[in-house]
Amino acid sequence: MQNKENSKKNEANAKENLANLNLKLPEVSTPGGSYVSVNVRSNIAYIAIQFPILNGEYLYQGRLYF
Questions:
Q1: Are 27 and 55 in contact (CB under 8 A)?
Q2: Of 23, 29, 34, 31, whose CA–CA distance to 53 is shortest?
Q3: At a CB cut-off of 8 Å and minimum separation 6, what does 31 contact?
Q4: DSSP for 1-59?
Q5: Residue 58 · residue 52 · CB < 8 Å
Q6: 12-65: per-residue pLDDT in tens?
Q7: Cα separation, 19 vs 25, whole angstroms
Q8: How far apart are CA 41 and CA 59, in angstroms?
């Protein structure tokens, strides 16, 4: 029980600190599919494609040139 209480206090402190700094966290975007964001094999981490989405809008759009 004590861990849950500490967790709630830490969450409240974090929210207070953000408010004091006039910062607001962006909304969490919904996943574009069913995938694992990071897959670790041996000593290599494979990261699934990540999109720059902020509050439901793509920040950068365009074509990647190689």
A1: yes
A2: 29
A3: none
A4: -HHHHHHHHHHHHHHHHHHHTT--PPPPPPPSSS--SEEEETTEEEE-----EETTEES
A5: yes
A6: 788 899 999 999 888 777 777 777 888 999 999 988 877 788 877 888 888 878
A7: 10
A8: 31
Phi, psi of 41 (to 5 degrees): -130, 125
User: What six digits make up the tokens of 19?
Assistant: 């408010």
Which value, in Å, is the radius of gyration of the alpha carbons in the chain? 18
pTM of the model: 0.40
Per-residue burial over 32-54, b if 16 or more Cβ lie within 10 Å, else e, is: eeeeeeeeeeeeeeeeeeeeebe
Structure token pair of residue 49? 């494609």
**Residue holding tokens 């975007």?**
29
